Structures are given as C-alpha cells and as structure tokens.
Amino acid sequence: MGACTSTKQKRYEIVRTLMPYKVHIMAIIWPKNQHNLFDFESSSYCVKEIEVDFSAQLATVDKELVALTKSEWARNSIEIANITLNEQQAFINSISQQQDHKLWAVLKSEANQFQSIDVRCFINIKHLDLKIGDIVKLGRVRMQLLEYAFMPTCDEATQYQDEQEEDIQTISDVASCRICFSSKASETNPLISPCKCEGSVKYIHLECLQKWIGIQLKIKQGEHFIQYLCKRLDCEICKFTFRNTYTFQDKSYSVLKLPKPKSSYITFKITNDDKSKEAMIYVVEIGEKTELKIGRIPDCDIKLRDISVSRSHAMMKLIPTSKHTAENPDYIIRVQDCKSKFGTLVLAQDEDLLVIPEDGKSPILFQTGRVLLQCVQKKKINQKPAYKHPDNVVLIQIETKPQLDQQEQMQDSFVTHDELTAGDIIINNSQNPQKPQANMDVKEDSICDER
C-alpha cells in the first residue's frame, strides 16, 4: 500500500498517497499561442522537469509545471493531463474532451530536434501502425481512417453493385418513413431514429437517409482520388447533427453510402480546425503503390491544402503482414513523419500508449495543446516526498475545481457513431416499436463537421 503523507504548505494541509516509486516528467512549453500547435523548428521554448510519487493533475501556471491534488487549484492554471499511480503501474490520461487538448503521440524522425535538451533522455517513436478509427493530426488538419480494402491488381470485383434486399411487408398503421411514408423494413434497410424527432417524423429508412445525404455532397475527382465535400449535416426539423454510423446489437449502419473503387483503396475523413472549411471524405486509390505521400505540394498522393501542413509532411507505408499473398493482399498501414514543422500526431487511444514505461524503456512523447510531455517511471532512492510546489506559484485549497462548460468541450468532438436503443430502430414492423429508453449512449470519436 502507498504511504499517506500530510505536510503544511502554502497555509493549508496537503494529503497525498505516496507510491514506492516516482514518475519523472519532462515538459516542453511553447509560449506562442498559434492554433494549439507546437512549432518543432522554433527555439523559443522552455523546459520544465518535475518528479511525482502520487496521483495528480499536471497543469501549467505561466511557464511553470505543477502537480495538483484534487483539492488544489492555482489561478491562471491550465490543466493538461492526469497522472495516475497505483501499486502496479502508472498511467497518463487527458483531462479535456476537446480534441486539441487530448493526448497525441508525436512522431518525429529526428532525435536531436531540441538542441538544448539532452537527447539521451529525449526519445520518441518514429512511426505508428493505424487501425480503423485512428485519427492522425497534421498541423490543423485531422485525418481519421474510416475504411480500407486491398485487392489483387487484376481484381474486377463488382464493388459498385448495390446489395439486393428483400423488404418485409408489414402492418401499415405502425411506424413509417418520414420521407417515403412506407412502413417496409428489413435488416439491411431498417427504419431508424437518427435524431431527436418524435411522433410521425421519428423514423426514416436507412436508404432514404443515405440518398438525402448523398444529394448534399459535392464531388471532386482526380486521377487517383475522389473527394466528397460536405458541410455539417443537421436534421432539418430538430437540428440534431447526423452521425456517420449508428450501431445496434453489434451491427453497424452507415448513413454515408459511397461507390467504392474496384482496386485497393483507403478512405479518410478529413476535418480542419478552421471552421470555414468543409469536412471531406477522401478516397485514395492505391493501385500498386506501397507508399503514400501526404502534404501540400501537387505531387503528394494525399493533398491537404492548409498552410499549417508542410510541403511534404508525412508518409504512409503499406507493410505486408504474415498473411499477405498475391491473391489475398494484406497490409499494415504505417504512418511516419517527414521532418514537418508542426509534427505528425496520432490520437493516443490505446491503453498501451498511455502506460508510463519504466526507466530504460522507450517513452512516448505526447502533445497536448502547446505542451510536449514525456514520462518515465523511476525507482525512489529514499521514501521522502519527490515533489514540492514551485515557490513562485500560489495555490488555493478548494472543495471542487472550476469546470469548463460542457457544451464548449463538445464543440470540437468528433462523434462517429451512436448506439441505438430498441426504440430507435425497426427491422421488422410486425413488432411494435418499444418506447425509447434513456438517451443514446454517444461514443467518442461523422461525416458531419462538428466544429
């Protein structure tokens, strides 16, 4: 069990549960506020190092890094991350729900990026393997991996054919679609409740919603890519923003139905911090390529027209897996940075990324806002408290900390799907729709631009 300590400091009593080990934290703070980006080419940054042996919230106060308990607060403080210590492991987690202030794993190709820092203690990962749902940040642009398919070069599969379905004719006086007024429903074309509307306009066919959304899209096609541009898509009645995917009993229903290429392809959702820019679905045909260049210049395979994106910003490589054959190609999608100005970041969602490693293992460099963090678990030489507040920081003891407005936190969230309840979906109208249960369980991470 951890030891409890009580010390008097700043005219109030601090109670901390100390662990038999400590966590060394290095923070690199860039003082310039520029879209919550960190300029990796700048020399005007400050470095702060602290060690903690208790669970705490990390915060910056001016240019100082402090570790706060739940009962402590400092004026002008900006909370950046949670550090959780238990008997077995230590973890780092984000505090804010805003995407920019979550923890992003930094990919950099050069270890000597910061000349004033001992490079032996400043190590970072050079690449990460992506899975469906992962978000990559390049400057102000975010790319979320939505879908991919690898096919043999000669494969001419009928990717454009629509699935044939057998509608189930049901009782006419039950729920019906608010667009086509039909009460037919099937497993592939159910009646769903995608928004907050009630009564006779509660339900809509999945295919009717797909067709309506398809009309709103603007299409731009290149030699090896297709862009689908869309603004925020809201219900015209209740103004609720439609999600990209709805799920029910482990089955997903996508409201975005796009024609798929006949050859290998990767699909991304691209959004921007600039609210004036439209959201985009970017489908890039791979062909026989095993590398995709991402940047601002014309010869990039994925062109991102934003000044915060470097000319040649990042690279995606297709690494054959052990299951790969010519007849059944299978690849790992690996992303790496190409010496970009603002770095290539991957949203840290996996628990493995958030575990603080022991000394001697390669730690991960995180970015949250304009702060870089790197944490390493170390042994304690003695049992004295490892942390002491800086003398120039005035702290206040409080019962509850000031909270950010929840609505403000959710403005920049990327809600990809909602979990439908039994009352939100009708697959067979022979069963009467149940009354809606509690509010939809919105899971984090849409074709919609929720900025």
Account of the protein in words:
Residues 428-437 have a biased composition (Polar residues). By secondary structure, the protein is mainly beta. Among the domains are: 3-103 and 348-410, no CATH class; 165-258 and 415-451, Herpes Virus-1. The protein has 3 helices and 32 strands. The chain has helices at residues 206-216, 351-354, 406-410; strands spanning 3-9, 12-18, 21-29, 46-52, 56-61, 64-68, 72-74, 77-85, 90-93, 104-107, 127-130, 135-138, 141-149, 191-192, 204-205, 218-221, 225-230, 245-248, 251-254, 265-272, 279-285, 291-295, 302-303, 312-320, 331-337, 344-347, 365-368, 371-379, 395-397, 417-419, 425-426, 441-443. Strands 4-3-28-27-10-26-12-13-20-21-17-16 form a 12-stranded antiparallel sheet, with no helix packed on it. The longest helix has 11 residues, at 206-216. The protein is globular, with a radius of gyration of 25 Å. Residues 6-10, 155-173, 404-415 and 431-451 have low confidence and may be disordered.
| Terminal residue distance | 45 Å
Give the total of beta strands.
Answer: 32
Cα-atom radius of gyration:
25 Å
Low-confidence stretches: 6-10, 155-173, 404-415, 431-451
Look at the structure and give the mean pLDDT.
80
Order of adjacent strands in the largest pleated sheet: 4-3-28-27-10-26-12-13-20-21-17-16
Counted by DSSP, the helix tally is: 3
What structural class should be given to the helix and strand makeup? mainly beta
How would you describe the shape?
A: globular
Largest sheet: 12 strands, antiparallel
Range of helix content: under 10%
Beta percentage is 35-45%
